[in-house]
Amino acid sequence: MRLAGRFGGAALSLLMVAVLGFFLFRVVPGDPVVSMTRGRPTTAAMQAELRAQFGLDRPLHEQFWSYFTSLLHGDLGTSFTFRRPVSEVIGERLGPTLLLVGTATLIAVLLGLWLGVRAAWRRDSVFDRVTTGVSLTLWAVPTFWLGMLLMMVTGDLFPSRGMRDTDTAPDFVSQALDVGHHLVLPSVTLVAVVCAEYALVMRSSLLEEMHAPYLTTARAKGLRDDLVRRRHAVPNAVLPAITLVFLRFGLVVAGAITTETVFSWPGLGLLFYDALTGPDYFLLQGLLVVTAGAVVVMNLLADLLHGVLDPRVKVV
Amino acid sequence: MRVKLCALLAIATTVGLSAPPASAQQPVVLKVAIVQQIDSMNPFLAVFQSSTEIGRLMYDYLTAYAAADQSVTEGLANRWEPSADRLTWTFTIPEGKKWSDGVPITARDVAFTYNLMLTDEVARTANGSFVANFAQVSAPDDRTVVIRTKTPQVTMLALDVPIVPEHVWSKVGSIKDFANDRMPVVGSGPFVLSEHVPGQFIKLKANKTYWRGAPKYDELHFVYFQNSDAAVQALGKGEIDLVNRMAPAQFDSLAGKAGVTRNKAMGRRFTELLINPGAQTRTGEPIGDGSPVLRDVRVRRALAQAIDLDALVARVNLGYAEKGAGLVPPVFGKYHWQPSEAQARAFDPPAANAALDAAGYPRKADGTRFPLRLIGRAGRAYDEQASEYLKRSMSDIGVPLDVRLVSDNQLNESTTAATYDLAFSGWSTNIDPDFVLGLHTCAQRPGADGKGGTTDTYFCDETYDRLYAQQLSEFDEDRRVEIVKQMQARFYDQVPAVVLAYENALEGYRSDHFARFTTQPAQGGVIMAQNGMWGYYGAEPAQRTARAGGTGWAGFALGGAAVAVLVAAFVVLARRRAATAGERE
């Protein structure tokens, strides 16, 4: 029953996002037709024709109704900017974003949790101080600046834009290596920022467990330090970090905007940036539904996973 | 066992990552950075400057502008003749020109294109204004196109409309849904579109059968940069060969860089300061909330006189601009206008102060006369710096400025709704001045509901409008030039806007890869964003050594080494842990 409630809640959240998305972006100043035709010989009649083409000349409630009914049929409308169905435009950008965000999240989670555990276990050691200091610094650094800096200091070693070179051989191995080569700087940038957060949360959550009586018991059994940490302390301390990982993963899909902009990575973040300059209503609405959907789904997953990881939290 | 596996994995990964991308016989490629998205490859829908620029490479127009002096020259048509009443134009399409698939180009393709635009509303999306005055287009035979216009039209040799092949486009069902991405895309220009990955790159191949002769290299790649700083860095590293639209500081950063040549060209753009002259709709209803004092032309002149344009160019444009005057930039020399000694408004704050006193706006007790608002775009370096400068200039004549820097969309909205006193704006102009002049006529103002306006300045002046109509039907070029200059003089005198500067177009290219580019015009002209395709078409490869291919190797070697070190560390740790566990348990 509670499980059904969770799913119901998630569905309701998505519905609200869809409704909110429509009105939210209509408040963004600017007239899409004016910005679309700016700087070109355009007559008022042509502008009116464009408005009619996109349905912008109809009353707001009619526009909303047509948006909403199409959405229920899975149709996100047509992008003004790209003149193609929104779902198609988003679809081709989803892969690159998932690749970048997925790689970065995986590295950041492993590295962040490992650093956090080590730092907490040897609290006040040199390792702890360095890790915490560096984490705090990286967390505070603007992503844009870090990206540009990395690009400058690495010189010729890594490409400065995009996901692929235009003249790479078409076979799979060459293409995959090329993508890997392009992936290095953006994912390092993203890891540097995200990983710090995981390390800090993991550290503080493990510190809370450090003086728990069950650890003393475990040590008294004669277990070596390593096993006490791995089998007893970490499993109890990892829960807040797992929640964070899932929440962040949902957010990161949209949050890669700055990284993607710096490195011209052809993902959703970059698409969001481009859509805002229109403003390209349908594309923005679609992006909001997809990215908010990611957050909602990840939330739900974190909820369900909690029950698996921690028997005290019963889902059903 | 585990250790061995790890070691094997380490070796495999290192070898794998260190292998450079395989390379076949390298074609000569020109790589160009574009910083604007591509909206569509369908020439009837594409409105972004980046898209139309690539469209010019794929499709020829009926006529073209020469590279050397921008005069009208052969496009698809090599001869043209207006009738005595100037209502009928006959264009001749010579034999021998072919589409990239080998089918001959005929007058029927031209008639098909224009008629498609006349009959299909969607096909008018991008270039509808060029055919708005067309009554009928026909092709009596394969070589002759006849266009009848409703009224005499002086811009008949400036029809920026890509002509498409009838044998391809007649099969297109809905123009709106046609992405024009069946590669290779059949065209008539010097390059053929061969691949487009949205948001990443566009590849074109040289059209070996192009009627002017094949380009001197094999492929032209446009790679997309969201971030212009990254584009400038990529040029420095040799990843790309050509960049434009650089900011002065970026341009300066490339000075003395080995293998890079900079091109400081005359630009097509001007920057202006709009002064709300008392905005009204077409029906004469006041619109917006502009300060009433600005309706007085004496006030507008005084404000203009208090601005030191030379200082703005030197300090804000860092010298990469020319001082503004008329609406047509000097790059279009024929129509460019400069005020005579008598007409010119020299920078003179005391005279501006005296003029405001005389006009009945004395200083109040606190030393001010009346406040004004200035809006500009946040994040645009010019607006940020020039607004500070203007604040000081205006305060010298007792006009406190309230500066507000807003988003691009908000700025557009304010200028469209006339809710401004002063605002930064700017336009890119064309060889034919009709468009930029037309922006300031009464008819461009919005209708009674405040919508449908395309005016730039809310200017509405009887003299200016009369001259505008005259130049539109003046077929004697010298006389038209004279009228166009009179219009600019009138605009300058009535000051609905102050043209602040004609910005230079700042470009850079890898001269170790490409030795020469054709600029338009020949003297001080641009390579990119031309009224034509000469810059890309005329590029000549340098006698080069291999493209800097070492970068890939170095990166891969470094990546491989890093992975090897990590794996080795892991192996050592694992062994140590196994050992201690054994000892302690």
Give a verbal description of the structure.
Chain B: Residues 72-437 form the Solute-binding protein family domain. The complex is a heterodimer of chains A (316) and B (585). By secondary structure, chain A is mainly alpha-helical. Chain A has a domain at 93-280 and 298-309: Orthogonal Bundle (MetI-like fold). Helix content of chain A is 76%, strand content 0%. The N and C termini of chain A lie close together (7 Å). The mean pLDDT of chain A is 83. Chain B has 585 residues and is α+β, with helices and mostly antiparallel strands. Chain B has two domains: 29-259 and 511-544, Periplasmic binding protein-like II (D-Maltodextrin-Binding Protein, domain 2, 3-Layer(aba) Sandwich); 267-504, Dipeptide-binding Protein, Domain 3 (Dipeptide-binding Protein, domain 3, Roll), CATH 3.10.105.10. The longest helix of chain B has 35 residues, at 550-584. Chains A and B meet through helix 2, helix 3, helix 5, helix 7 and helix 8 of A and helix 4, strand 10, helix 6, helix 12 and helix 17 of B.
Per the CATH scheme, the topology name of the domain at 93-280 and 298-309 in chain A is MetI-like fold
End-to-end Cα distance of chain A, whole Å, is 7 Å
The unreliable regions of chain B are: 1-23, 548-552, 579-585
Class of the domain at 93-280 and 298-309 in chain A, according to the CATH hierarchy? Answer: Mainly Alpha
Shape of chain A: globular
Write the layout of secondary structure elements.
The complex is a heterodimer of chains A (316) and B (585).
Chain A (H helix, E strand, L loop, with lengths): L1 H26 L4 H6 L6 H11 L5 H13 L13 H36 L4 H15 L2 H11 L18 H38 L3 H8 L4 H31 L1 H6 L5 H10 L3 H29 L7
Helix pairs in contact in A: 1-13, 5-6, 5-8, 5-10, 5-13, 6-8, 7-8, 8-10, 9-10, 10-13, 12-13
Chain B lengths: L1 H17 L10 E6 L14 H10 L4 E3 L6 E3 L4 E4 L5 E5 L14 H13 L8 H4 L2 E8 L2 E6 L16 H4 L21 E7 L3 E6 L12 E6 L3 H10 L4 E2 L4 H6 L6 E16 L21 H9 L3 H7 L5 E3 L25 H10 L13 E6 L3 H16 L4 E6 L1 H10 L4 E7 L5 H5 L23 H11 L4 H18 L2 E14 L3 E3 L17 H4 L2 E2 L8 H35 L1
Parallel strand pairs in B: 1-10, 14-15, 14-16
Antiparallel strand pairs in B: 2-3, 4-5, 5-7, 6-7, 8-9, 9-10, 11-17, 12-16, 12-17, 13-17, 18-19
GO molecular function, one term (chain B): peptide transmembrane transporter activity
GO cellular component, one term (chain B): cell envelope
GO biological process, one term (chain B): peptide transport
